[in-house]
């Protein structure tokens, strides 16, 4: 082996290996401290692009989950109002049945008619006041669109909620209801039956929309879970595997430092040669 003073090749080689080990050790420390396998584009260009797409998709779906939750809340408000109106219509049926019978006198019909008039006004109040964030839900036919996906496909990413009519007394055919006579009370019974059918139709439409939201919510939860898992597989670090790398690089760092120290002592052999 040639002995040189100006150039210590063994020390240079040891330094190069030590620098590479130091870089690998720093990378392992970064991965372990962040929990990510990919911390910058240089770590995995294609992997970062795919992981970012998954992350963007998940963020969009989480917003869709909020839309579904708000849509469900809106329908619950509408259902609550419709149920109240249904109860009033059922009470109107009781009043009309009493008023249509000869065992109810004129004064009795007057009182029954007054109650019916007040209840019809209450129907209008409920229908007008049933709102969600300023949107009227029962004062007319409803047509609302909810974004329940992260894409732009109308059939897959949106739900449209519609109702065939409102629940105002005029929509139900109750605005001119009268129980002042037996004949008018008998006619009112038919009108009330028709109104009850209309209310039940609206409740059915609301229930169908709620069912769709329930399934959409479950599907979104599964999609978010699967996409998050896919992103994690690409972006997150395997802590056990990376800890093995970290330990190996630590050992190599210690060994490299020791070997560099030994290599730096080699030129002293020249001094020993000159001293002979």
Please name the defining characteristics of this protein:
276 residues, mainly alpha, f41 fragment of flagellin, N-terminal domain, two-stranded antiparallel ribbon, 4 strands, 5% strand, rod-shaped
User: Mean pLDDT score, rounded?
Assistant: 91
Poorly predicted sequence stretches spanning 5 or more consecutive residues: none
CATH homology superfamily name of the largest domain = f41 fragment of flagellin, N-terminal domain
Global outline: rod-shaped
Number of strands: 4
SSE-based structural type:
mainly alpha
The CATH topology of the largest domain corresponds to: f41 fragment of flagellin, N-terminal domain
Largest sheet: 2 strands, antiparallel
What proportion strand? 5-15%
The CATH class of the largest domain turns out to be Mainly Alpha
**Number of domain modules:** 2
Q: Could you give the distance between the termini?
A: 19 Å
């Amino acid at each position: 082996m040639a002995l040189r003073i100006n150039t210590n090749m063994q020390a240079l080689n040891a330094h190069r290996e030590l620098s590479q080990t130091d870089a690998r050790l720093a990378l392992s420390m970064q991965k372990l401290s962040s929990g990510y396998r990919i911390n910058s584009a240089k770590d995995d260009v294609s992997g970062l692009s795919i992981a970012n797409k998954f992350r963007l998709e998940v963020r969009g779906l989480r917003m869709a989950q909020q839309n579904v939750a708000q849509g469900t809340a809106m329908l619950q408000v509408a259902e609550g109002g419709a149920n109240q109106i249904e109860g009033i219509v059922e009470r109107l049926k009781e009043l009309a049945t009493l008023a249509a019978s000869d065992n109810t006198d004129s004064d009795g019909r007057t009182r029954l008619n007054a109650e019916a008039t007040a209840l019809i006004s209450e129907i209008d109040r409920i229908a007008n006041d049933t709102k969600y964030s300023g949107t009227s839900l029962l004062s007319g036919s409803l047509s609302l669109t909810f974004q329940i996906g992260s894409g732009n496909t109308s059939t897959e990413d949106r739900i449209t909620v519609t109702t065939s009519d409102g629940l105002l007394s005029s929509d139900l055919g109750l605005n001119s209801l009268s129980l002042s006579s037996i004949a008018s009370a008998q006619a009112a019974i038919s009108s009330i039956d028709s109104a009850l059918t209309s209310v039940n139709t609206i409740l059915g439409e609301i229930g169908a929309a709620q069912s769709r939201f329930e399934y959409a919510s479950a599907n979104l939860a599964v999609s978010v879970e699967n996409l998050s898992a896919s992103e994690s597989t690409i972006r997150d670090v395997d802590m056990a595997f990376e800890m093995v790398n970290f330990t190996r690089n630590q050992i190599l760092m210690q060994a490299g430092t020791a070997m560099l120290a030994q290599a730096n002592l080699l030129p002293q052999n020249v001094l020993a040669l000159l001293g002979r």
